[in-house]
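Project standup — Tuesday

K.O.: blocked on the structure for the chain from last sprint. Re-posting the sequence here as requested.
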Amino acid sequence: MTVKKATTNGKKKAEPKNSAKPPIKGKRPIASRDEKFVDLVAKGTSPTEAYKKAGFKDTKNARINASQKLANPNTQALLEQRKEFYRSIADVEAAQIIGAQQEIAFGSIEDALDDTGRLDFEKAKKNGSVRLIKKISRQHTQHGENVVVEFYSRTDALNQLADMLGLKQQPRQNEADLKRIVEAIIETRRRHPEISAEEAVQIFAKGRGVSVEKVLEHLEAVN
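H.V.: unblocked you, prediction finished:
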């Protein structure tokens, strides 16, 4: 019995087509509309606006559809994960900003000067007091050139620090608020041990409706 071989007329046999293409290395897959929706909500966008920006077609019923999505347990779990992620980033950035403001508020300008009272830039770079310098400019006069050094304002830094730590809200007499002030004082003294407890209390309590004596009592109780 003779078996006939299939011929291709000199052409290679076509490979079966596979519609699924392999992922391109080095590229992340495009986020789905649901993932984009969750990410936008986690960043603070309203659910209705997030639904529209995510690319869903039924924008007329965006509010209702967004609410239905947020009611889904899987969506809720993903949303909480994204919120936690963005909170962690915000905490790091806030800590860095607070640390920088504390350097300005409690740093000494003298650390950037030499024995004659002139700016010693190399010394300032070595001891870190260069962070206190806001601007260096040169002024030309008939007597020659003057170098003008402008330092960041200690008062401004203290006010900004108080804002960041939420210490300007009123009133500040309840236990939770006092505890927060005490924690701020402890953290400040940890970073700057040269600051006395009394000075730190004056800085954070003065002008904020808080009894200095009350803060000192709480500080002593913690220590």
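K.O.: great, moving the ticket to review. The beta strands are 133-141, 144-151. Residues 107-151 form one domain.
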